[in-house]
Amino acid sequence: MPGKITLQAEPCPVARALDVIGDRWSLLIVRNAFDGMGRFGDFQKGLGIAKNILSDRLHKLQLQGILEAVPATDGSAYQDYVLTAKGEALFTLIVSLRQWGEEYLFDKNEPRSLLLEKQSGKAIPKMEARSANGRKLNASNTLVRKIDR
Amino acid sequence: MPGKITLQAEPCPVARALDVIGDRWSLLIVRNAFDGMGRFGDFQKGLGIAKNILSDRLHKLQLQGILEAVPATDGSAYQDYVLTAKGEALFTLIVSLRQWGEEYLFDKNEPRSLLLEKQSGKAIPKMEARSANGRKLNASNTLVRKIDR
DNA sequence: CCGTATCCATTCCGATACTG
DNA sequence: CAGTATCGGAATGGATACGG
User: Fold this and answer.
1) 3-state secondary structure of A14
2) What residues have CB less than 8 Å from A26, skipping those under 6 apart?
3) CB A136 under 7 Å to nucleic chain C
4) What are phi and psi of A127, to 5 degrees?
5) How does pLDDT run across A41-95, given as a tens digit for each residue?
6) Which of A100, A103, A108 to mutate against chain B (most B CBs within 10 Å)?
7) Which residue, A29, A46, A49, B124, is most buried by CB atoms nearer than 10 A?
8) pLDDT tens digit sequence for B49-77
9) What is the pTM assigned to this prediction?
10) Within 7 A of a protein CB, which nucleotides of strand C?
């Protein structure tokens, strides 16, 4: 009896996170929500996603507490989907994805969308992991301790 | 004629990145590669992934230039799968995933694996996006410029 | 031990029709 | 416009058999 296996019992936070947002569409919906998008039809047209899939993902993201449905601001009978704190916390993840994609998935002069600081209009410097002492970290100077507590 | 649509023509780096590594297993394989794992059987047992799927993902990750197959160090006739520079660059993304998962997907005292700095043995502080001037960034003080160049 | 190939169930996804 | 329902095809995934 095949079928998907849940990773929610895994002790690794990476595995659990991927179980929640590791699919084709969820993070794209979140990305658009960061850009201020909130309406069903805007997600649907903006992403080119099928409506039934969008409906399913919006429900799952609400179940996970990443999005929240609030009454639409335009007075219509419908809803806006807005990020919760848990959803807002995905900002660094989205920026990581964006910066990796920018560096490795585009040809030299290929058109792309850019993330800028509003105040200065300048591009965002590459994020990096640092230790408490400010040392730059990579795989070779870090270590995963298998289990804890 | 249904089926998957490629996002590789998208001008958004987030979309392209998700098209490459936005699935259930690819980043878990990369995570284990960061931990020094390199052999087919180790991935298979360590992840609990079906062998055919693992075989498929290893091929795709090689096609993408994220993993590279090298002769096994133990003198066997087989291969080790090691990260390329493009793959190593996924480190910040994995750390972002891990830190989000740690904060939002575990109960208070639930066992989990932890990422530590080797030298100090201490946990890695939360990564954050900052502007060139050191200002802390979030969705409200950044902006995506639709197209460029 | 390393991987590929095959089988089958489940999931994903796109298209479309439909309700309110 | 917002969302659900249904259909068919494609991709995913687990189990297992098989050859190197």
Assistant:
1) helix
2) A20, A57, A60, A61, A66
3) no
4) -70, 150
5) 999 999 999 999 999 999 999 999 999 999 998 888 899 999 999 999 999 999 9
6) A100
7) A29
8) 999 999 999 999 999 999 999 999 888 88
9) 0.93
10) 1-17
